[in-house]
Amino acid sequence: MSHQQTGFTVLELLIASSLAVGVILMAVTGLGTARQSEQIELAYQRLNENARLATDLLRQGLQRAGHPGCHPSVRRNLIADGHDPAWPAVEVSAEGALTLTGFRAVLEANIPDESAGEAILPLGRSHGIATGTPVVVSAASGDACALFIHTGEEPQALSRAPGGGASNRLPATAYQALTGAVTVFTLERVMFEVGPSSTHAERRSMFRRRASARYRREELVVGVEALSVRMLSHDQTVTAAPVGVSLALEVASGRAETLGSAPLRLPVDLTVALRNRWP
Fold first, then answer.
1. pLDDT band for position 94 (50/70/90)?
2. What is the phi-psi region of residue 142: left when phi exceeds 0, alpha when psi lies from -120 to 50, beta otherwise?
3. Quick check: helix, strand or coil at residue 168?
4. Beta 204-210 vs 217-222: how paired, if at all?
5. How far apart are CA 61 and CA 182, in angstroms?
């Protein structure tokens, strides 16, 4: 009696093994493709978030540029040569750095009635403002405001007197009365620039330097590869007062964010109207 052969032949086992390996490879490839697609989608999201953050910071800075501290119609300029330290409000260096200048509020105080029309304005609190600093003192009522160079050395009072260097002029009649609640503004300069990232190798970032922070370099947005700035005026002449600023940015992802693929790039154009008038 002969015995009937059961089970698989060697050839059948080889074919089955090959099919199994193929299925596994397809599954692994599919998982890899899905992971890469998910990673690229996340990279696009981060790219858009970085572009939004960069444009928001630039827009806010430009809208504050040239801030006079109070309405120009009530502000008296006591600076001897009559210039406004907040102008030019927007400057672009040869290297492409954007510098914005304007007044920012630094403290609130109360000036007693008996000192309202004096050259020395007691604040009743320390101000920390160095002698020679341009200052705007604006009444909370909105009907009085003065721009001057602080010429005193008292830690709790501001001086709008001429000082040793005749930094301020004497008013024709009397000092504008400043009394009660006031806000004190000092000049702030902010610089935006693009350079090599300090935290991510082979990438570039947008940085900020502020006078109030001793021009310390602050890394704001990683992935900003380039920033170009163009001033806009009504007649486009060199001497014409600018009415707006046109900016072009390029934001890029890193290779690690796209699993080694080419970096994603997003060009962004932004136009911002200047809110504060040219003096």
1. confident
2. left
3. strand
4. antiparallel
5. 24
- Per the structure block, which two tokens stand in for 117? 């029309």
Cα angle value 232/237/243 (rounded, 5°): 30
pLDDT band at 108 (very low <50, low <70, confident <90, very high): very high
Q: State the Cα–Cα distance between residues 158 and 127, nearest whole angstrom.
A: 8
Q: Which two tokens stand for residue 51?
A: 């572009």
Please list the residues that pair with 194 across neighbouring strands: 206
Residue with tokens 């806010």: 60
Average pLDDT, the chain: 86
For residue 178, count other CB atoms closer than 10 A to its CB: 22
**Which of 218, 236, 209, 221 has its CA nearest to residue 266?**
221
Measured CA to CA, the distance from residue 31 to residue 23 in angstroms comes to: 12
* Alpha helices (runs of H) in the chain, residue ranges in sequence order: 10-64
Q: What sign results for the dihedral spanned by CA atoms 142, 143, 149, 154?
A: negative
Q: Which of 86, 84, 76 is nearest to 160 (CA)?
A: 76
**Beta strands in the chain, from DSSP E residues, in sequence order:** 75-77, 90-92, 98-111, 120-122, 134-139, 145-149, 157-159, 180-196, 204-210, 217-222, 224-232, 244-252, 265-273
* 9-23, 41-55, 66-80, 114-128, range with the lowest pLDDT: 9-23
What is the Cα–Cα distance from 145 to 158, expressed in whole angstroms?
A: 14
Identity of the residue numbered 65:
A
Q: How far apart are CA 212 and CA 189, in angstroms?
A: 8
Per-residue confidence (pLDDT) for residue 49, from 0 to 100: 94
